[in-house]
Amino acid sequence: MLLSKTQALIWTQNLIALAVFLQTLEFLQIRKTWGKNPIWDWEVIRIEFQFLPRYLRFFLDAVLNNSRFIFLLLIRAVAAVFVFFIPHPAFFFILLSTTVLISLRWRGTFNGGSDFMTLIVLTALVLGGLFAHTPGAQTACLWYIAFQTSSSYFISGLAKITKRNWRTGKALKGFFESTVYEPSPVLGFASRRPRVLFFASWFVMIFECTFPVALVNPNLCLAYLGLALGFHLANFYVFGLNRFLFAWAAAYPALYFCSQYPK
Amino acid sequence: MNTLTFLFILYFFILTLLALLKRVHLPGRMINLLRAFFPSWRFFEDLGEVPVLFYRFRRKDQSLGDWKDMNAEKPRRSWLSLALNAQGNLLLAYQSLLQHVMSELAEIKDGQEDEFEHSVSYTLVKNLVRSKVLNEATLGTEMRYQFKISAILPGLPHEHGEELLCSPEYEI
Fold first, then answer.
1. How far from A31 is each of A71, B100, B129, B136, CA to CA, in Å?
2. Which residue from B15, B46, B123 is facing A44, i.e. has the nearest CB?
3. ipTM of the complex model
4. If we measure between CA atoms, which residue out of A134, A149, A118 comes closest to residue A254?
5. pLDDT at residue A2 above 90?
6. Are the C-beta atoms of A61 and A46 separated by less than 8 Å?
7. Does the pLDDT at position B123 exceed 90?
8. What are the phi and psi torsion angles at B106 (to 5°)?
9. Which residues on B lie below 8 Å from A30 (Cβ)?
10. Could you read off the pLDDT of A89-103 as tens digits, one per residue?
11. Nearest to B82 among A103, A183, A236 (CB)
12. Is the pLDDT of residue B72 over 90?
């Protein structure tokens, strides 16, 4: 099964729209933490933006304060839905800018890695849309997503493999024990067995370090994407990282498209 | 070997060299606020101490109760939250806020400890504890609360933790 550039773009657009839509619904569900008498009180957070010029602070106050932040989220949700029907660059620009503003509202990022990947995919789609008539621009944007995606696994694997705790399996046990969820029988079983932890750790490290190989050919790419989906599902089960699954899934069509290039 | 293959190998070779270099911490509020633009892919890099938030409260005429772990009530995992996991992600955001506090505390210079009580991170943690106490306590009575943050290695009992900060008592 081969994927054309247009098909890769459409899949990327729809999957990132879905990811952004779900993220926005989650923000709406935790409204009490940013709405009235909130934990993340804009009146407190805005102090960190004193270094900005006055007009920018005025803009941020207007869109990020406790009572108006909901409008930003609603605009974002509506734009995400529109993308499914009219993939105009303007809607991607709205998704990109609201994602940046939401990150600022949470003092940098709300959900770390998933915010990084969402921004990378949206930036590529905005640029790809703006320069749609420039030969090679959209292909370059897909390559940008593909390289960032394979780099994300590769760097993560490399960072782990240089650590003794990861090579012995001890790190994985520690991470299992520090999740925000209640202990599970499956993780309890694994945590009590050093050999299971050892092999699981090495499986993760080898998978991540060799991920760039996915760019070599489409069949290999499909195999790696299957493993990656399983990996993200496991991360969701253990750590609750559901946003990572959707953000990374949005990048996979670009990766698959690029794996088809003759090397 | 064609050009694309060469560039591919070169890119990951450079990436390997960069990844093996010692991490550089860039100080500055602006860099921190814009960190979504500087992706860090070093997920779950190594085991380290994690910050744990404890709190306790009392009515004005009573004494303070025992310290309670903020994450004592751990939610159950559910595959139904694969699409929407607002509560799970909120707990991760609380954890990230505490990590923020921990790294800011590590950077505080001697003699500036008192100033930290007026910082954004501290105030947000205070808001978090206040909302928790308001959820648990009977409203209508004058309440006071206190919190502390300890650094604990995963898997070890909480008594083994190192206390990073302990707040004064606050009124609700």
1. 12, 22, 17, 19
2. B123
3. 0.92
4. A149
5. no
6. yes
7. yes
8. -65, -25
9. 86-87, 89-90
10. 999 999 999 999 999
11. A236
12. no
Chain B 54-83, residues with CB within 8 Å of chain A CB atoms: 71, 74-77, 79, 81-83
Strand, helix or coil for residue A217: coil
Query: What single letter denotes the amino acid at residue B66?
Result: D
The answer to whether the beta carbons of residues A214 and A220 sit under 8 Å apart is yes
In the structure encoding, which two tokens stand for residue A87, read together? 């993939």
Three-state DSSP class for residue A87:
coil
User: For A106, which of B46, B93, B155 is closest by C-beta distance?
Assistant: B93
Residue A44 to residue B30, Cβ atoms within 8 A: no
pLDDT category at A193 given cuts 50, 70, 90 is very high
Alpha helices in A162-215 (DSSP H): 164-168, 170-177, 185-191, 194-209
Band of pLDDT at residue B25, cut at 50, 70 and 90: low
Judged by a CB distance cut-off of 8 A, whether residue B103 touches chain A is: no
Out of A108, A163, A237, whose CB is closest to B45? A163
Interface touch A242/B92, C-beta < 8 Å? no
Cα A39 from Cα B90, distance rounded (Å): 11
What pTM value is reported for the model? 0.92
Phi, then psi, of A247 in degrees rounded to 5: -65, -45
Mutation pick from A180, A205, A244 vs chain B, by most beta carbons of B within 10 Å, is: A180
